[in-house]
């Protein structure tokens, strides 16, 4: 019975059915299924499948957005219970679009995928200065995501890494970069720790960098 409920949660996330996700999560809580199990084997497992489908081009951005909305609807029910149970996120991460760039669709997709994988995510927004990224690192985040959609704002990524080095913080955080004009060779060139070609790969890359 518990396995069936968890499977139903997973399927309802994959199909992006908000009402069913809420119904099954509520049922799982009332059935006294462990909160972490509901998260890991229900909601997070569902988003994991969505990520795989996204990488293989079976799902596109609209399907990911719909699935993420369903996952968040389930998390809203669990959040007060998570706090009460003392369950910690996998790690705290932060992400922002670099200075001079106002695009946020890619950033928002990464946020959804990271949250769906169990990370606590701080959204720094768009047009984020190097100093703002530095402040986020000072708060103890483990991974910093930098996004850029324009070739003209790519160099701002190097400015962030330079600012981290100047403050002596580069060794305290893993920096992952991404966006339409970004490549692995550019990540290597500026000293970033990782590059993700899309939002689903951003989950894999962060786990790899943190040895999870």
Q: What do you see in this structure?
A:
It is a single chain. This protein is an alpha/beta fold. It has 2 domains: 2-85, Methionine synthase domain (Methyltransferase, Methionine Synthase (B12-binding Domains), Chain A, domain 1, Orthogonal Bundle); 92-209, 3-Layer(aba) Sandwich (Rossmann fold), CATH 3.40.50.280. It has helices spanning 2-14, 18-30, 35-55, 61-85, 105-116, 130-138, 155-166, 184-190, 199-209, and strands spanning 92-98, 120-128, 143-147, 174-178, 194-195. A 5-stranded parallel sheet has the order 2-1-3-4-5, with helices on both faces. Strand 3, helix 7 and strand 4 form a beta-alpha-beta unit. Helix 2 (18-30) runs parallel beside helix 4 (61-85) and helix 4 crosses helix 5. The longest helix has 25 residues, at 61-85. The radius of gyration is 18 Å and the shape is elongated.
Physical arrangement of strands within the biggest beta sheet:
2-1-3-4-5
Name of the CATH class of the largest domain = Alpha Beta
> How many beta-strand segments?
5
Number of domains: 2
Percent strand equals 5-15%
Question: What is the first-to-last residue Cα distance?
Answer: 30 Å
Helix segment tally: 9
Main sheet: strands, sense, barrel:
5 strands, parallel
Calculate Rg over CA atoms: 18 Å
**Shape by Cα distribution:** elongated
Order of helices and strands: HHHHEHEHEHEHEH
Q: What is the CATH architecture descriptor of the largest domain?
A: 3-Layer(aba) Sandwich
Poorly predicted runs of 5 or more residues:
none
CATH homologous superfamily descriptor of the largest domain: Cobalamin-binding domain
CATH domain fold name of the largest domain: Rossmann fold
Helical content (DSSP H or I, runs of 4+): 55-70%
The secondary structure category is alpha/beta
Q: Taking all residues together, what is the mean pLDDT?
A: 93
């Amino acid at each position: 019975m518990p396995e069936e409920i968890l499977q139903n949660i997973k399927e309802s996330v994959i199909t992006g059915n908000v009402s069913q996700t809420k119904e099954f999560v509520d049922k799982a809580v009332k059935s006294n299924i462990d909160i972490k199990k509901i998260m890991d084997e229900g909601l997070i497992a569902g988003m994991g499948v969505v990520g795989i489908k996204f990488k293989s081009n079976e799902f596109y951005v609209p399907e990911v957005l719909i699935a993420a909305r369903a996952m968040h609807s389930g998390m809203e029910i669990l959040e007060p219970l998570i706090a009460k149970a003392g369950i910690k996120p996998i790690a705290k991460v932060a992400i922002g679009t670099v200075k001079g760039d106002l695009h946020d669709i890619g950033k928002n997709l990464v946020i959804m995928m990271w949250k769906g994988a169990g990370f606590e995510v701080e959204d720094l927004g768009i047009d984020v200065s190097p100093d703002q990224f530095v402040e986020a690192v000072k708060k103890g985040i483990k991974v910093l995501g930098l996004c850029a959609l324009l070739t003209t704002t790519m160099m701002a990524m190097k400015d962030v890494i330079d600012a981290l080095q100047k403050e002596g913080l580069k060794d305290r955080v893993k920096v992952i970069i991404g966006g339409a004009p970004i490549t692995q060779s550019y990540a290597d060139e500026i000293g970033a720790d990782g590059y993700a070609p899309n939002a689903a790969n951003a989950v894999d890359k962060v786990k790899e960098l943190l040895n999870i």
